Structure prediction request, 372 residues.
Amino acid sequence: MSNGLILGIESSCDETAAAVVRHGREVLANVVSSQVAMHALYGGVVPELASREHLRNIVPVVRQALRDANLAYKDLDAIAVTAGPGLAGALLVGVSFAKSLCFGLGKPLIAVNHLEGHIHAVLMQSVEQSTPDKAPVLALVVSGGHTHLYLASQVKEVWRYRNIGRTVDDAAGEAYDKAAKLLGLPYPGGPWMDRLSSFGDATAVRFNFTEINRGTEAEPSFDFSFSGIKTAVLRYVQTHGMHSAAEERHQAIAALASPGLDEIRALCDVPVLNLIASFQHAVVENLVKQTMRAARHHGALRIVVSGGVAANQALRGQFRDAATRSGLAVAFPPAALSTDNAAMIAAAAWPHFVQRDFAGHDLHATPQLRLG
Ligand code: KG4
Ligand code: ZN
Prediction:
């Protein structure tokens, strides 16, 4: 008899995570071991180090999740793992471990797409999972690796996804992190840019986005491009002589044991704060506008926004305003489920479990795995 208990395992990037979720909704344990502090020393994720840390952490993290849930391996109904997309070596640690567990315990294995996981981080929170009139849900997954729009529709337990837009170059989180690096801010820069932006004038610097549409007039695609704004920030820093001050800021922050907002803000002059505020304003406006256009075109009544950048306060505020104006509902994951975690993997696995959609022991990691 099934207790609906799924152990989720996630190791696609720089977090080793394990969680136990009952019936795709009730989080009994959610353990995340982050490598951010280690990668921060290098200003970005170093794939070889990530794999090594996953290897070191996977067993203690899974054991901790079971302890937190007060369960033993035998109580589980299935084990779900992120099969992609992500870093090859990092994914391989989770996939190999999940496969060996399933083999040893005789439990079914479920392969989950990381992006489906991010979408379910929001869906698992809402009581009514489908809209009454079966209108599709529009999902924006916006993180350090992705800026993708999906139409998600549910028929009984089965979720189907259709990709209707994506970034053609950098992801939004990547642009945040690169702009922050140019200004000497710590890695990852997104949260710092978000917090500092309220101290600057968002109208000080004008950034433009080029319209990108790989689709046709009848079937447009709702794409994004963030490499242009990254280059524009670089050019602004160069032409306004901000480079050496950014280097000094970087050194000063590196010398602080645990830098806080007030200390970092004190190291930023008015032009830097204005540049940060203008960058945030432009990126958020672009994300919201493009998503709302897609929602109108496809008749979506509900928008879910997930991934690391979904933690952004301005993004949340502007999405709420735009959705209210258009009579749409918008939802975000709680803070603990917006960045990478395994609860979202176990939740996304539930419909697969119900359909007995299990993976074989030949499952492999797929770094470029697509959704929809
Ligand atoms: O989903 P996630 O943890 O990992 C990936 O799958 O990429 O997302 C991490 C990304 C980083 O680029 C980080 O800078 C960005 O999310 N991020 C933010 C904020 N919090 C995290 N970007 C803007 N504003 C934030 N508050
Ligand atoms: Zn992610």
The chain has a mean pLDDT of 94. Residues 165 and 223 are 5 Å apart (CA to CA). The chain has two domains: 5-121+337-354, 172-332. The two ends are 32 Å apart (CA to CA).
